[in-house]
Amino acid sequence: MDKIREFFKRDRFAELLGITIDQVSPGQATVSMDLKEEHLNGVGSGHGGAIFTLADFGFAVACNSHGTVAVAINVSISFVKAARPGRLKAVVREVSRNPKLGNYSAEVIDEDGDLVATFQGLAYRKNIALEDVK
Questions:
Q1: Which residues of the chain have pLDDT under 70?
Q2: From 18, 37, 88, 128, which residue has the greatest number of CB atoms within 10 Å?
Q3: Which of 86, 83, 94, 90 has its CA nearest to residue 121?
């Protein structure tokens, strides 16, 4: 899984937001970030784009954890609680996978353990090894 961690150092946007990979195993990932003042929207809660990016990055790590390139073809998110500044994590698990498609589910949780958002992602699995991506 060190190769996956190394590969995702390329994700400049996740780096900009301070997202880290806490755990990765085949088909699963946990990623986290500190939701800061600069991540808040006009009403003072966590910006949906920041929360979505956290879940989407976790989805990318999980669906690429098998060592082949996988890209999103459909994703959705439901926000269930306003996020406040503090640590957020996205816990992603593989629901199903075949040679061409992978289905993933994620929960975004705040530091109190409360559910902030749910995320579903469908990935198209290419026949390209991650190590061959330049």
A1: none
A2: 88
A3: 94
